[in-house]
Amino acid sequence: MARITLEQRNRYAAKVKEYKANTDAILAAEQSLLTLLKQQGPGPGSGYVRIKLANEALVLTSYHILVNTLSVALLGVKNEDSLAEARKSIGRCIKYLEEIVTGWVDAAFSEYEKNLEDISEVSYDDRYELLRKIGFAIREIEEGYGANSKWKWAFVEIWAKFSVVAKNMLDLKKAYVDMDIESANREVVMAYVGFVKRMFQATADRYREKYEMFSNKMEDFKQAILYLTGLRRLHIVFGERSEAEELKKKIEIWSAKLESDQKKREEAASGR
Fold first, then answer.
1. Euclidean distance between CA atoms 104 and 114, whole angstroms
2. Mean pLDDT computed over every residue of the chain
3. Cα dihedral sign for 42, 45, 49, 54?
4. What would the pLDDT profile of 93-136 be if each residue is shown by its tens digit?
């Protein structure tokens, strides 16, 4: 690795100092909003405060990512502390949204529909834009750590939580209507729904991969199947029968594999 010059160190330090002032201001704004939320209590308006909180946490995440990017560009090394802070702040971002719409993976829309009333004035476009930015930030953090990072498998849960929030922020009844060819919202709804479907399939695949290649924990395989089940529910909601039937077969195959693996473990444990 090339020797780091004093000029590079000084440029890096100056930028970090500038970013630190910005991140401190964002943290202060986040704390103010949390105080407001505590004073306000549950009820009308709290959802919009949490949307603002999510946006603040997302902007904070972007600064932490910038510090790492700058460290790599100017010093040739990752800034592990900044990546850790980015991981924490994106986690808070997702949590703020989860507090609005729940973290239920496979639930009937009627069970969490009422939660969406508190953010009813947030448009499809604004929701979808926020979600795409969150997804981009997660990818940036993951890539910042690198493919062989010890945190590789921790991102499976981050992506999973994000996938659920993305799905639960969508008013499925309204989306079904707005898929009509005459709807002005058709384009954004189609993109949004497609995004959620891809996220659920990817999450199921990630949990399956984690089970096969790393953890060997039945809970990870069960999560993989749960996300396939959640995806199948989406296909059923939108009347996509062939896709739902294909997923049903896949769920049956994965469930049989899970049962077989469990049986083998029980037999091995009993010495048979």
1. 14
2. 95
3. positive
4. 999 999 999 999 999 999 999 999 999 999 999 999 999 999 99
d(CA 17, CA 148): 30
d(CA 189, CA 176): 9
Residue corresponding to tokens 């896709």: 243
Q: Provide the CA 244 distance to its chain's centre, in angstroms.
A: 24
Rounded-to-integer distance, Cα 121 and Cα 132, Å: 19
Q: CB of 94 within 8 A of CB of 158?
A: yes
SS3 193: helix
Confidence label for 168 from pLDDT (cuts 50, 70 and 90):
very high
Q: Residue 149 and residue 232: Cα distance in Å, rounded?
A: 32
State the alpha helices, DSSP H only, in 3-147. 6-40, 46-75, 80-101, 109-112, 124-145
Task: Specify whether the CB–CB gap between 164 and 103 falls below 8 A.
Answer: yes
- What's the token pair of residue 23? 């991140």
Domain range annotation of the chain: 1-144, 170-272
Token couple for 103 = 């973290």
Distances from the Cα of 213 to the Cαs of 85, 159, 208, 252, 267, in angstroms?
Answer: 27, 18, 9, 21, 22
